[in-house]
Design goal:
Layout: H1 3-24, H2 30-48, H3 58-88, H4 95-115, H5 121-153, H6 159-184, H7 190-195, H8 197-228
Length: about 230
Protein backbone atom coordinates (compact mmCIF):
# COMPACT_ATOMS: atom_id res chain seq x y z
CA UNK A 1 0.00 0.00 0.00
CA UNK A 2 1.20 3.51 -0.87
CA UNK A 3 2.35 5.19 2.37
CA UNK A 4 1.12 8.57 1.14
CA UNK A 5 -2.40 7.18 0.80
CA UNK A 6 -2.27 5.90 4.39
CA UNK A 7 -1.05 9.28 5.63
CA UNK A 8 -3.77 11.18 3.77
CA UNK A 9 -6.46 8.79 5.04
CA UNK A 10 -5.34 9.14 8.68
CA UNK A 11 -5.10 12.93 8.40
CA UNK A 12 -8.53 12.96 6.77
CA UNK A 13 -9.97 11.38 9.92
CA UNK A 14 -7.92 13.59 12.26
CA UNK A 15 -8.75 16.75 10.29
CA UNK A 16 -12.48 16.09 10.19
CA UNK A 17 -12.55 15.28 13.91
CA UNK A 18 -10.70 18.50 14.77
CA UNK A 19 -12.92 20.64 12.52
CA UNK A 20 -16.07 19.11 14.00
CA UNK A 21 -14.64 19.83 17.45
CA UNK A 22 -14.14 23.50 16.50
CA UNK A 23 -17.81 23.83 15.54
CA UNK A 24 -19.24 22.23 18.63
CA UNK A 25 -17.14 23.85 21.35
CA UNK A 26 -16.26 27.24 22.81
CA UNK A 27 -14.50 30.01 20.88
CA UNK A 28 -11.27 29.47 22.85
CA UNK A 29 -10.76 26.14 21.02
CA UNK A 30 -11.42 27.47 17.51
CA UNK A 31 -7.92 28.49 16.39
CA UNK A 32 -6.41 25.31 17.84
CA UNK A 33 -8.93 23.07 16.07
CA UNK A 34 -8.75 24.96 12.77
CA UNK A 35 -4.95 24.79 12.84
CA UNK A 36 -5.01 21.01 13.16
CA UNK A 37 -7.68 20.79 10.44
CA UNK A 38 -5.38 22.69 8.07
CA UNK A 39 -2.78 19.92 8.42
CA UNK A 40 -5.23 17.81 6.42
CA UNK A 41 -5.19 20.34 3.58
CA UNK A 42 -1.43 20.75 3.79
CA UNK A 43 -0.95 16.99 3.61
CA UNK A 44 -3.66 16.39 1.00
CA UNK A 45 -2.49 18.90 -1.61
CA UNK A 46 1.19 17.84 -1.88
CA UNK A 47 0.69 14.10 -1.34
CA UNK A 48 -2.58 13.38 -3.13
CA UNK A 49 -2.22 15.52 -6.25
CA UNK A 50 -1.84 12.40 -8.45
CA UNK A 51 -5.46 11.63 -7.59
CA UNK A 52 -6.76 15.19 -8.04
CA UNK A 53 -7.26 17.52 -11.02
CA UNK A 54 -4.12 19.50 -11.80
CA UNK A 55 -1.77 16.66 -10.90
CA UNK A 56 1.84 17.81 -10.95
CA UNK A 57 0.93 21.49 -10.90
CA UNK A 58 3.74 23.19 -8.92
CA UNK A 59 1.38 25.97 -7.81
CA UNK A 60 -0.92 23.42 -6.14
CA UNK A 61 2.07 21.79 -4.46
CA UNK A 62 3.32 25.18 -3.27
CA UNK A 63 -0.11 26.00 -1.81
CA UNK A 64 -0.02 22.75 0.13
CA UNK A 65 3.25 23.72 1.80
CA UNK A 66 2.00 27.25 2.48
CA UNK A 67 -1.19 25.93 4.09
CA UNK A 68 1.01 23.59 6.14
CA UNK A 69 2.94 26.60 7.41
CA UNK A 70 -0.30 28.46 8.11
CA UNK A 71 -1.63 25.53 10.13
CA UNK A 72 1.17 25.66 12.72
CA UNK A 73 0.87 29.46 12.92
CA UNK A 74 -2.90 29.31 13.49
CA UNK A 75 -2.74 26.61 16.15
CA UNK A 76 0.19 28.32 17.89
CA UNK A 77 -1.87 31.50 18.07
CA UNK A 78 -4.70 29.39 19.47
CA UNK A 79 -2.56 28.00 22.28
CA UNK A 80 -1.33 31.51 23.07
CA UNK A 81 -4.97 32.61 23.32
CA UNK A 82 -5.75 29.67 25.57
CA UNK A 83 -2.81 30.49 27.83
CA UNK A 84 -4.09 34.06 28.24
CA UNK A 85 -7.59 32.69 28.82
CA UNK A 86 -6.32 30.26 31.46
CA UNK A 87 -4.79 33.20 33.36
CA UNK A 88 -7.40 35.94 32.87
CA UNK A 89 -10.58 34.16 31.61
CA UNK A 90 -10.73 36.89 28.95
CA UNK A 91 -11.05 36.23 25.23
CA UNK A 92 -11.53 38.50 22.22
CA UNK A 93 -13.19 37.90 18.86
CA UNK A 94 -15.67 35.31 17.65
CA UNK A 95 -15.56 31.88 16.01
CA UNK A 96 -16.63 33.42 12.69
CA UNK A 97 -13.71 35.85 12.88
CA UNK A 98 -11.25 32.96 13.14
CA UNK A 99 -12.76 31.14 10.16
CA UNK A 100 -12.91 34.25 7.98
CA UNK A 101 -9.39 35.41 8.87
CA UNK A 102 -7.96 31.99 8.07
CA UNK A 103 -9.77 31.86 4.72
CA UNK A 104 -8.59 35.39 3.92
CA UNK A 105 -4.94 34.48 4.55
CA UNK A 106 -5.27 31.33 2.41
CA UNK A 107 -6.88 33.38 -0.39
CA UNK A 108 -4.11 35.99 -0.19
CA UNK A 109 -1.49 33.24 -0.37
CA UNK A 110 -3.19 31.75 -3.43
CA UNK A 111 -3.21 35.14 -5.16
CA UNK A 112 0.49 35.53 -4.35
CA UNK A 113 1.24 32.14 -5.92
CA UNK A 114 -0.84 32.86 -9.03
CA UNK A 115 0.62 36.29 -9.79
CA UNK A 116 4.19 35.00 -9.59
CA UNK A 117 5.98 32.61 -11.98
CA UNK A 118 5.18 28.92 -11.38
CA UNK A 119 7.61 27.71 -8.71
CA UNK A 120 10.41 25.46 -9.93
CA UNK A 121 11.90 22.57 -7.99
CA UNK A 122 14.32 24.80 -6.07
CA UNK A 123 11.56 27.23 -5.07
CA UNK A 124 9.35 24.37 -3.90
CA UNK A 125 12.25 23.00 -1.88
CA UNK A 126 12.76 26.40 -0.23
CA UNK A 127 9.06 26.65 0.65
CA UNK A 128 9.16 23.17 2.15
CA UNK A 129 12.21 24.04 4.26
CA UNK A 130 10.44 27.15 5.56
CA UNK A 131 7.36 25.07 6.41
CA UNK A 132 9.30 22.36 8.23
CA UNK A 133 11.47 24.87 10.09
CA UNK A 134 8.35 26.62 11.38
CA UNK A 135 6.91 23.29 12.51
CA UNK A 136 10.08 22.18 14.28
CA UNK A 137 10.73 25.34 16.29
CA UNK A 138 7.09 26.19 17.01
CA UNK A 139 6.46 22.60 18.15
CA UNK A 140 9.12 23.04 20.82
CA UNK A 141 7.68 26.43 21.81
CA UNK A 142 4.16 24.98 21.93
CA UNK A 143 5.24 22.10 24.15
CA UNK A 144 6.53 24.59 26.71
CA UNK A 145 3.44 26.81 26.32
CA UNK A 146 1.09 23.84 26.75
CA UNK A 147 3.04 22.83 29.86
CA UNK A 148 2.28 26.26 31.31
CA UNK A 149 -1.39 25.93 30.34
CA UNK A 150 -1.50 22.53 32.05
CA UNK A 151 -0.14 24.02 35.27
CA UNK A 152 -3.01 26.53 35.19
CA UNK A 153 -5.78 24.03 34.42
CA UNK A 154 -4.47 20.74 35.84
CA UNK A 155 -7.23 20.62 38.46
CA UNK A 156 -9.97 21.05 35.84
CA UNK A 157 -11.62 18.14 33.98
CA UNK A 158 -9.69 18.93 30.78
CA UNK A 159 -6.23 19.17 32.36
CA UNK A 160 -5.09 15.77 31.10
CA UNK A 161 -6.08 16.78 27.57
CA UNK A 162 -3.19 19.22 27.48
CA UNK A 163 -0.75 16.47 28.38
CA UNK A 164 -2.05 14.70 25.27
CA UNK A 165 -1.34 17.83 23.21
CA UNK A 166 2.25 17.79 24.47
CA UNK A 167 2.55 14.24 23.15
CA UNK A 168 1.04 15.37 19.82
CA UNK A 169 3.69 18.03 19.35
CA UNK A 170 6.46 15.62 20.34
CA UNK A 171 5.31 13.34 17.51
CA UNK A 172 5.08 16.29 15.11
CA UNK A 173 8.61 17.35 16.11
CA UNK A 174 9.95 13.91 15.14
CA UNK A 175 7.95 13.94 11.90
CA UNK A 176 8.81 17.41 10.66
CA UNK A 177 12.28 17.38 12.19
CA UNK A 178 13.21 14.25 10.23
CA UNK A 179 11.90 15.75 6.99
CA UNK A 180 13.76 19.02 7.65
CA UNK A 181 16.98 17.07 8.28
CA UNK A 182 16.58 15.29 4.93
CA UNK A 183 15.96 18.55 3.07
CA UNK A 184 18.73 20.58 4.72
CA UNK A 185 21.35 17.91 4.00
CA UNK A 186 19.84 17.05 0.58
CA UNK A 187 19.58 13.36 1.45
CA UNK A 188 16.60 13.15 -0.93
CA UNK A 189 18.90 13.80 -3.91
CA UNK A 190 19.79 10.36 -5.36
CA UNK A 191 23.56 10.93 -5.51
CA UNK A 192 23.72 12.07 -1.87
CA UNK A 193 21.19 9.44 -0.79
CA UNK A 194 23.49 6.71 -2.15
CA UNK A 195 26.40 8.20 -0.19
CA UNK A 196 24.47 8.23 3.11
CA UNK A 197 21.83 5.51 2.73
CA UNK A 198 21.56 4.69 6.45
CA UNK A 199 20.97 8.30 7.50
CA UNK A 200 18.32 8.73 4.82
CA UNK A 201 16.60 5.45 5.72
CA UNK A 202 16.56 6.17 9.47
CA UNK A 203 15.24 9.69 8.86
CA UNK A 204 12.50 8.31 6.60
CA UNK A 205 11.46 5.72 9.17
CA UNK A 206 11.41 8.25 12.04
CA UNK A 207 9.49 10.73 9.89
CA UNK A 208 6.88 8.18 8.81
CA UNK A 209 6.42 6.87 12.35
CA UNK A 210 6.14 10.44 13.67
CA UNK A 211 3.56 11.25 11.01
CA UNK A 212 1.56 8.13 11.87
CA UNK A 213 1.71 8.81 15.61
CA UNK A 214 0.81 12.49 15.09
CA UNK A 215 -2.29 11.75 13.01
CA UNK A 216 -3.53 9.11 15.44
CA UNK A 217 -2.80 11.26 18.50
CA UNK A 218 -4.50 14.36 17.03
CA UNK A 219 -7.75 12.49 16.34
CA UNK A 220 -7.54 10.69 19.67
CA UNK A 221 -6.86 13.88 21.63
CA UNK A 222 -9.87 15.72 20.21
CA UNK A 223 -12.14 12.73 20.79
CA UNK A 224 -10.83 12.53 24.37
CA UNK A 225 -11.39 16.27 24.90
CA UNK A 226 -14.90 16.00 23.48
CA UNK A 227 -15.62 13.33 26.07
CA UNK A 228 -14.15 15.45 28.89
CA UNK A 229 -16.15 18.52 27.86
CA UNK A 230 -19.54 16.74 27.90
Amino acid sequence: MDWNVVQVFLWLIAGLVSFYFSIGNARVWTSISVGFFLILIGELLPNAVPFLPGAGNPQIEAMGYIVGTLSILVMSHGFQEYYVFSRTLELEGSKLYVYLTTLAVIAASLVFILINPPPDAQTLRTIRIVEHANWVFLSLINIDLIRKIYLNVKDSPIGSGFLAFMAVFACIFLWKGSELYILVYSFDIPSIMREYPTRYLVSQIVGNLGNLAASLSVGGTFLYLARLLR
